[in-house]
Specification:
Layout lengths: L2 H18 L18 H6 L12 E6 L5 H13 L3 E6 L6 H10 L4 E5 L1 H10 L4 E5 L14 E4 L6 H10 L5 E6 L5 H13 L3 E6 L6 H9 L4 E3 L10 H13 L4 E3 L11 E5 L1 H16 L10 E2 L4 E6 H6 L14 E3 L1
Parallel strand pairs: 1-2, 1-3, 3-4, 4-5, 5-11, 6-7, 6-8, 8-9, 9-10, 12-13
Antiparallel strand pairs: 10-12
């Protein structure tokens, strides 16, 4: 790596360390940030003040408890809180009527929703109560929120993965992104803005329906150094679309950067993912703050995920003959060789 490039990398590495150590929460706008609770703080806040000798009552609604990431958030939430928790699953159509009756009969102090389906149900039936949500793609598309709504965004702050891409693969300067106006337009605009500061060019193609996805992908790969595959149900309505995208990128010998840790096993080169267990604990921390009577600032209402995992597919990196910064591997949690 040239001296100038090396100096830039050191600067980026310093700034990255600054951001992940907490500096991030003090220098971005209220809509897209909130103070982060550390894992230690979340674990230590495990006791609610009792009301009239009884524990607080929490209704936990899961959009589909068979979804692994939803299940992980649910389990960690339950482990962390000291409260009476009634669990409901909207994913089982056969038992849905009974689940709804059970929820409506439960006099909850707070509702925790996992996924968009659960949150939509809570908005319709529990809008007067405290609502905490997580695991919703582009949660702002569901606004307006009930006034007592708090949550954790499904996406990391865009600067976080961009720093990792830039730090580990400093020669990759043009990132292609497929997005939809319905779900991820605002996220795409935020990513464009953040990328400019890191001297990365974002090349985007908007997709309105799944039939447009493959032509848009091939067009994108002819102009970009790598694909940044994001979470968007228009781009990947079914799992088979993931395999198709990865296969096409492999034919073009273009690396894929993405958001889900399992994707490195299917051929993605670098993944910066949300830690789902931390999401559950973070949601529990918010719930405990609310039920203890503590007032939360308006800029704390929607928080970024507090934890992340970095995974690198070194085998694919070498297969594509990609230059990577070995000094940056210390930041990687999982390496596939």
């Amino acid at each position: 790596m040239k001296s100038t490039e090396h100096n830039k990398f050191l600067l980026y590495l310093f700034l990255f360390s600054f951001f992940v150590s907490g500096g991030l929460s003090s220098c971005i706008t209220p809509r897209t940030d909130a103070p982060r609770l550390s894992d230690t703080e979340i674990r230590n806040q495990t006791v609610f003040p009792e009301k009239s000798g009884e524990k607080p009552r929490i209704l936990l609604i899961n959009s589909d408890s068979n979804v692994e990431k939803y299940k992980t958030a649910q389990e960690e939430f339950k482990k962390t809180v000291s409260a009476s928790v009634l669990e409901a699953n909207l994913g089982n159509e056969k038992e849905l009527e009974g689940e709804i009756k059970k929820m409506l009969a439960y006099n909850a102090d707070l509702v925790y929703c996992i996924g968009a389906k659960a949150f939509s149900f809570a908005k319709d039936h529990f809008g007067d109560k405290y609502i905490v949500f997580s695991s919703i793609i582009n949660c702002y598309r569901l606004t307006p929120f009930p006034p007592k709504t708090y949550g954790i965004s499904n996406e990391l702050h865009t600067r976080m993965p961009l720093f990792m891409f830039r730090s580990i693969f400093p020669d990759i300067r043009r990132l292609g992104i497929l997005y939809s106006e319905q779900y991820t337009l605002q996220w795409f605009k935020d990513a464009e803005s953040q990328a400019k500061e890191l001297e990365i060019e974002i090349i985007g193609n908007s997709v309105a329906e799944k039939e447009e996805m493959m032509p848009a992908l091939k067009n994108l790969l002819s102009r970009a150094d790598a694909l940044w595959l994001i979470s968007d149900p228009v781009i990947m309505p079914e799992k088979k679309f993931l395999y198709e995208i990865l296969n096409v990128c492999a034919k073009y010998r273009k690396p894929v950067f993405s958001y889900h840790e399992t994707y490195v096993n299917y051929g993605a080169v670098l993944v910066v993912s949300v830690d789902e267990a931390t999401i559950g604990r973070q949601a529990a921390g918010i719930a405990m703050e609310l039920l203890s009577g503590n007032k939360m600032n308006t800029d704390e209402k929607i928080q970024f995920p507090a934890g992340s995992q970095i995974s690198l597919n070194l085998k694919k990196t070498e297969e594509y003959s990609l230059e990577y910064n070995k000094d940056g591997l210390g930041m990687v949690n999982n390496i596939v060789k």
